[in-house]
Design brief:
- This is Protoporphyrinogen IX oxidase.
- Keywords: Membrane, Transmembrane, Transmembrane helix.
- It is a single chain.
- This protein has one domain.
- It is about 80% helix and about 0% strand.
- It contains five helices and no strands.
- The N and C termini lie far apart (about 50 Å).
Length: about 160
Amino acid sequence: MHSSRSKLRTSNGIVAAVLVAAFFGHALFGVLWLHGDFAGQGAWLVWIAVGLMGAHVGLSAATSRSMLADEQRPPSTRKKRHLALKWASGAALLAVALFHMAFGLVGGAEGFRIVLLAVLALLAWHCLVGVKSLLKDLGLPKGLRGAVRTLLAAAAAVLAFLLFC
């Protein structure tokens, strides 16, 4: 059972890492597009991210179910709360991202930029919540957690700044 869970976690970690890069890449392309520095050739990145998002949700559901059903090493209350926080942050991100996609909110008006800022903030929150799991899934040392969190926060801050410049 642990071998299949390990494979699920590794797969989910790889998908999540590529998804984070795709989302932050999309945000960067979007900011550049808003400033007229990019013609929008990166639309393909959105569709890759959508596919990865579906895979990430499915793999996350499978790993969550496996963790919650583990009778040999049942999750602590703390782990269950953290899992709930990851799902809540992911659901909030998905809701705002769908709103952004459904209405084609691309930041031309100030109100639209606020929605984009909300997407960016929720992306950063979800990433920061999931860093520990991501590092474990990828077999990376947990000592990197602070550096990865700093990098994610800095990337989000730079993109937020550029969004309103």
